[in-house]
Amino acid sequence: MEVMQRFIAVDNKCLWPQLRMGENEKIYMTGFNKPCHGMVEGDVDCYVSCDGGESFGFTGIPVVHDKGCNRMNHNSGFTHDGEFITIVSGYTNRPTVIYDYEYYKENYFFKSELVLPTVANSSDGGKTYRVRKLDFAFDNESIIPYGEIIKMEDNVLAASIYVLGTNKAVEFNKCTRRAGILISRDNGETWTEFHEIDEGINETSIMYIGEGRVIALARTAQNQRLKLYKSRDWGKTWSYSEDISLPNQIPAALTKLNDGRILACYGSRLNQKSIMYRIGDENGENWSPPAVLTVLEETGDMGYPSSVQLKDGTIVTAYYADGIDQHTRYHCGIVRWKL
């Protein structure tokens, strides 16, 4: 493994970045645009790189937040006709300034609720968006979008989400949690089905590997580790395969490499905080031993890596940190590397 570059792509913002490879190696990156963990009003920004991930320029905001709310949780991908698509949710009762965490928790977070998810499509490189409310809902549960929106056959899209048994933040610690995929059979215009992967999991990365086979790498609610699941019927039913990480190594993002193998990148929050990776074969099996991509020196909060690969083999991995020795603010970092 060779690291060619490591640099700050977006400063003073948290992001929890998601990278998606568009046409002509145009890389889209989305993420929350404030330097905190969703504690204030804010939005998901879209950035685009046209130089192989060496720089990212702001293009637009998919869903603009309402006053007193934010938009932060999201998934993203592309439709069958190449439009960028994202589903975005967030929270009510958000201030405009960052307060001490305990004050914020008592006066804002515990009094907040989840906002209904919104779907946004862009056909002009992430500059402008066609926005509408997500037309799928549960009676007594709330949807949080996270991860990928992936293409399958026959105009079908699958969107990774997790589901909480409440919409009230004060009840999060005791509510049910499960994750699965939303299905659209008309290229993302309407969403009509939900297929559960498992209970007790939340932030999940999904990948379609062909012939009805889908794999999912999910963060567990307990012990904070990564569990691999597989489906052979286009995500309708799922079976647990294996654990991929130790506890406190979460969450992950899956990337199909040029040679057909599958890259899993994830954040390790053990003693040495770092971005780690493993590589599986084209079926999501026979995973390599864990390896460290980069160490995040003296950071507190970090991780959420996301990767794409260029035609020349260069892998671009984005991550976030709330500060390192050399740069003590929230930022989104980029590593450009080759296997």
Structural features, described:
By secondary structure, the protein is an all-beta fold. It has a single domain, classed as Neuraminidase, CATH 2.120.10.10. It contains one helix and 24 strands. The strands form five sheets. The chain has an eight-stranded mixed β-sheet, with no helix packed on it. It has a four-stranded antiparallel β-sheet with strand order 1-24-23-22, with no helix packed on it. The protein has a four-stranded antiparallel β-sheet with strand order 2-3-4-5, with no helix packed on it. A hairpin with a 7-residue loop joins strand 16 and strand 17. The longest helix is centred in the first third of the chain and has 7 residues. The protein is globular and about 50 Å long. The mean pLDDT is about 95.
How does the SSE layout of this entry go?
Elements: E1 2-11, E2 15-21, E3 27-32, E4 44-49, E5 57-60, E6 70-78, E7 84-91, H1 101-107, E8 114-122, E9 130-133, E10 142-151, E11 157-164, E12 177-184, E13 193-199, E14 201-210, E15 213-220, E16 226-231, E17 239-243, E18 249-256, E19 262-268, E20 274-280, E21 291-295, E22 302-309, E23 315-321, E24 331-338
Parallel strand pairs: 6-10
Antiparallel strand pairs: 1-24, 2-3, 3-4, 4-5, 6-7, 7-8, 8-9, 10-11, 11-12, 12-13, 14-15, 15-16, 16-17, 18-19, 19-20, 20-21, 22-23, 23-24
